[in-house]
């Protein structure tokens, strides 16, 4: 196998210019030069378009595609459609990768001509996620099934030979994909999803891939931003969970994957908690208290949630806080549940302020 071109797709929407510069510099300065960098400007309103256009003048390997705002899945799909490389990678615009990432990946591809997917690890700040193995690991069909079960949440760790793995973050930005396999299987990101699109793309690709390799090195550097750590108001969150659950159920049905009942219960409850935080009890919720209560009652009294509450309340290992949430939800105590979330929000604000004050005092002592 010759040195094949790697297409790196970067979906961009209103990214901070400083972060975007660090991202693009890490791509342009790769020690492996046979790459193309595809920038998909997803209708940015903060002059990202001009920023990208100016960067493209620096290097002919940069290609730019401007589109009306349609979401990250649409941007990635358009990137895949215009990619000319045999291999594709995805990098988010506020993150960056090690300068030898593509060179290392290409060496693996040359040594393994039948591979469809190469995965690696990442870091967040000073936290590095690895399993401590230097050699490349291959997943056979049985181990590929174990990998899918881990992504589904059925397994915490998987055993491959004498190695025990806990693979992190089933996202697309820490992998390199064979574009021919994507086209052959007509794989794409579901554009009607606003959450979990990475998970579903990886589930389908891993299921259909012939050969998968894993390199236990943190090539990718993930930068948590304010949007990723702050719960934003989302009035469509219930529909988003339902749509993702339906897509996931469809995958499990097509490929005969079974998720244990206890895990299904936990996933339903987790989605319920997200709905409470990002919609019903969010400070930016514009609904009046009685209209909000009415909508919450319609939501929380759905059979899947009622049965989930009943299953959970029987668990002895359920902590006090979640037991209280389940109890109040099961018995439709909206106002008490709202009060609980208000107190929880105040305590969180207090902890954040205390943390800031401690950092300020530490800074004063050091200066």
Give a structural overview.
With 367 residues, the protein is an alpha/beta fold. It folds into two domains: 6-227, Alpha-Beta Complex (Spore Coat Polysaccharide Biosynthesis Protein SpsA, Chain A); 234-359, no CATH class. 49% of the residues lie in helices and 17% in strands. The chain is built from 14 helices and twelve strands. The protein has helices spanning 17-28, 48-56, 72-82, 101-111, 141-151, 179-184, 197-208, 226-229, 237-254, 261-280, 289-300, 303-313, 320-330, 334-366, and strands spanning 6-12, 35-42, 62-67, 87-90, 96-97, 117-124, 127-129, 137-139, 158-160, 163-165, 175-178, 212-222. Strand 6 (117-124) and strand 7 (127-129) form a beta hairpin. Helix 7 (197-208) packs parallel to helix 9 (237-254). The radius of gyration is 23 Å and the shape is globular.
Helix and strand topology:
Elements lengths: L5 E7 L4 H12 L6 E8 L5 H9 L5 E6 L4 H11 L4 E4 L5 E2 L3 H11 L5 E8 L2 E3 L7 E3 L1 H11 L6 E3 L2 E3 L9 E4 H6 L12 H12 L3 E11 L3 H4 L7 H18 L6 H20 L8 H12 L2 H11 L6 H11 L3 H33 L1
Parallel strand pairs: 1-2, 1-4, 2-3, 6-12
Antiparallel strand pairs: 4-11, 5-12, 6-7, 6-11, 8-12, 9-10
Helix pairs in contact: 5-7, 7-9, 10-12, 12-13
């Amino acid at each position: 196998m010759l040195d094949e071109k790697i297409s790196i797709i970067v979906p961009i929407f209103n990214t901070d210019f400083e972060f975007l510069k660090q991202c693009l510099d890490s791509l342009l300065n790769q020690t492996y030069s046979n790459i193309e960098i595809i920038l998909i400007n997803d209708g940015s309103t903060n002059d990202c378009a001009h920023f990208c256009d100016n960067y493209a003048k620096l290097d002919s390997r940069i290609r730019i595609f401007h589109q009306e705002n349609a979401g990250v899945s649409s941007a990635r799909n358009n990137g895949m459609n215009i990619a000319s490389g045999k291999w594709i990678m995805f990098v988010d615009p506020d993150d960056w990768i090690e300068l030898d990432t593509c060179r290392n990946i290409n060496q693996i591809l040359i040594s393994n001509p039948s591979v469809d997917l190469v995965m690696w690890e990442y870091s967040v700040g000073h936290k590095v996620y690895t399993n401590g193995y230097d050699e490349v690991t291959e997943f056979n069909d049985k181990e590929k099934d174990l990998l899918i079960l881990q992504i589904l949440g059925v397994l915490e760790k998987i055993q491959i030979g004498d190695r025990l793995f806990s693979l992190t973050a089933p996202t697309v930005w820490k992998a390199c994909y064979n574009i021919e396999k994507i086209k052959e299987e007509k794989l794409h990101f579901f554009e009607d999803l606003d959450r979990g699109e990475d998970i579903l793309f990886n589930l389908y690709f891993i299921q259909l891939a012939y050969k998968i390799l894993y390199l236990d090195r943190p090539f990718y550097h993930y930068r948590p931003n304010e949007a990723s750590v702050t719960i934003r108001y989302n009035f469509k969150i219930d529909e988003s969970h339902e749509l993702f659950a339906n897509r996931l159920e469809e995958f499990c049905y097509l490929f005969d994957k079974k998720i244990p009942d206890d895990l299904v219960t936990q996933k339903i409850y987790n989605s319920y908690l997200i709905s409470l935080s990002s919609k019903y009890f969010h400070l930016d919720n514009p609904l009046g208290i009685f209209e909000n209560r009415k909508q919450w009652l319609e939501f929380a009294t759905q059979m899947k949630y009622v049965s989930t509450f009943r299953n959970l309340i029987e668990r002895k290992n359920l902590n006090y806080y979640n037991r209280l949430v389940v109890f109040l939800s099961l018995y439709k105590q909206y106002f008490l549940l709202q009060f609980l979330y208000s107190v929880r929000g105040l305590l969180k604000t207090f902890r954040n302020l205390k943390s800031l004050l401690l950092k300020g005092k530490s800074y004063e002592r050091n200066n």
